[in-house]
Write a structure and sequence with these properties.
Strand order of the largest sheet: 5-6-7-8
Oligomer: single chain
Helix content: 25-40%
Shape: elongated
Order of helices and strands: HEEHHEEHHHEEHEHEEEEEEE
Number of helices: 8
C-alpha cells in the first residue's frame, strides 16, 4: 500500500499530472514536398502559359471596356437572360472591368501557387534595430526571393503582367469622361444673332421702344425660343436678358449708351457669380440686385459690380430698331454671359 502511494507521488501533486519537461517545445515543420512544377519543367511551362493567358485576357478585357464605353450608346437597353432588360453600356462596362481585374488576381495567385517557391522557413525573433548583418541578410533574402519567384526567368509572365497592370488604370482614365462633356466654345455663344427680334418673356411678343417707359425693366429673350422645346432651359440660361430704359443723360458709360437705343439698354440677366437672375431693379439708383448673394450691378455704368461676390459686369447686348420698328439685336454678346468659368479669358 505504501509502495503504491509513493509511486503516485512521483507523478502527481494533489491529484494533478506532473508537467512535461518542455510544454512549449517547437513541433517543427513537416518535410517539404515538391510540387510537380518543381520537378517537371514542362508542367512549369504549362503554368507559365496559363498565367500569361490570364494576363492577356485582362488586357483584352480592358480594351473591351474602353471600346464599350466609346461604342455603346448610353440609352441602349438590351435583354440579357437571366437579368432581363438592362443597360447595354452598364452591363458591358461591368463585365469587362470585372473580367480584367479578376484575371490579374487569378494570374497572380496561380503564379504564386505553382511557380514561386513554397518552401516554409522558420526564423528566430530578432531585435527591432537591424544590425549590419541583418541588413545584409534582408538584401540577400530579397535577391533570393526574386530568384525564386522566377521573375527574371519567366519573361512571358513578366511582360504580360506588365501589360495587364499598365492597361487597367486606363479604365479609370476613360471614366473621367463622365465628369461631363467638354464645353468647348459653347458657353461663348447664345441664340442671339444679328437681326434677332427681342421678345417679351411674359407676352411672347416682339418689343418696340415705346413698350418700355423710362424707369421700367422688362425681361426678354431672342425670337425662336419655344418654352416647349427640350433644350429651352439650356438656351434660355445663356440668352435671357433684361431691358431697362434710362434718361440718356443718366447713362455714365459712353460705350453702354452707344450699344443701346434712345436710353434703352439690354443686359444679360444672369448673375456673373453663380447664375441667379439679377432682376431686382432699384429705379432711383439704376441698380440691379441679385437675390441669391446680393451682388449689385450699376446698369447706368456698364452694369459694373458695386457690391457682392460677382466677379465681372453683366454682359451687354448691342441693340437697334429694325425697319418694322421692333427692337432687335446687332449680334451676340461680346463675352460669355453667366458665371465665371474655367475657359474665361
Amino acid at each position: 500500500m505504501s509502495s503504491h502511494n509513493d509511486n503516485n507521488d512521483e507523478h502527481t501533486s494533489h491529484g494533478e499530472l506532473a508537467p512535461a519537461d518542455d510544454p512549449f517545445a517547437d513541433p517543427g515543420l513537416p518535410p517539404h514536398e515538391h510540387r510537380r512544377q518543381d520537378i517537371d519543367e514542362r508542367a512549369a511551362k504549362r503554368s507559365e502559359r496559363t498565367v500569361a493567358l490570364l494576363f492577356v485576357v485582362s488586357i483584352l478585357a480592358t480594351i473591351g471596356f474602353i471600346a464599350s464605353y466609346v461604342a455603346i450608346p448610353i440609352d441602349q437597353i438590351v435583354y440579357i437572360w437571366p437579368f432581363g432588360h438592362v443597360s447595354g453600356l452598364n452591363f458591358a462596362l461591368g463585365l469587362t472591368l470585372g473580367l480584367a481585374l479578376f484575371c490579374i488576381g487569378a494570374g497572380a495567385v496561380h503564379w504564386a501557387r505553382t511557380l514561386m517557391s513554397d518552401e516554409e522557413m522558420a526564423d528566430d525573433r530578432h531585435p527591432i534595430e537591424a544590425t549590419p548583418e541583418v541588413r545584409a541578410q534582408v538584401f540577400e533574402d530579397f535577391r533570393q526571393g526574386a530568384a525564386e519567384s522566377q521573375f527574371g526567368r519567366r519573361k512571358l509572365v513578366r511582360n504580360t503582367m506588365f501589360g495587364a497592370l499598365a492597361l487597367v488604370p486606363l479604365s479609370g482614365v476613360v471614366l473621367l469622361r463622365d465628369l461631363g462633356p467638354l464645353p468647348g466654345d459653347k458657353l461663348r455663344h447664345t441664340r442671339w444673332r444679328e437681326g434677332s427680334l427681342i421678345i417679351n418673356e411674359s407676352t411672347q411678343q416682339p418689343l418696340r421702344p415705346e413698350d418700355i417707359p423710362v424707369g421700367a425693366l422688362v425681361q426678354a429673350m431672342p425670337e425662336g425660343l419655344d418654352p416647349h422645346d427640350h433644350d429651352f432651359q439650356v438656351e434660355i440660361a445663356k440668352a435671357a436678358v433684361m431691358l431697362v430704359r434710362l434718361e440718356p443723360e443718366d447713362i455714365k458709360d459712353r460705350q453702354s449708351a452707344d450699344w443701346g437705343h434712345e436710353g434703352i439698354l439690354c443686359y444679360s440677366k444672369i448673375c456673373t457669380h453663380i447664375g441667379c437672375p439679377a432682376t431686382l431693379y432699384e429705379q432711383q439708383t439704376h441698380h440691379a440686385l441679385c437675390p441669391c448673394h446680393q451682388s449689385t450691378f450699376d446698369l447706368a455704368d456698364g452694369a459694373r459690380v458695386i457690391f457682392g461676390p460677382a466677379g465681372h459686369p453683366l454682359p451687354q447686348l448691342r441693340i437697334t430698331v429694325n425697319e418694322d420698328g421692333y427692337l432687335a439685336a446687332l449680334g451676340d454678346f461680346e463675352e460669355p454671359p453667366g458665371p465665371s468659368f474655367w475657359e474665361r479669358g
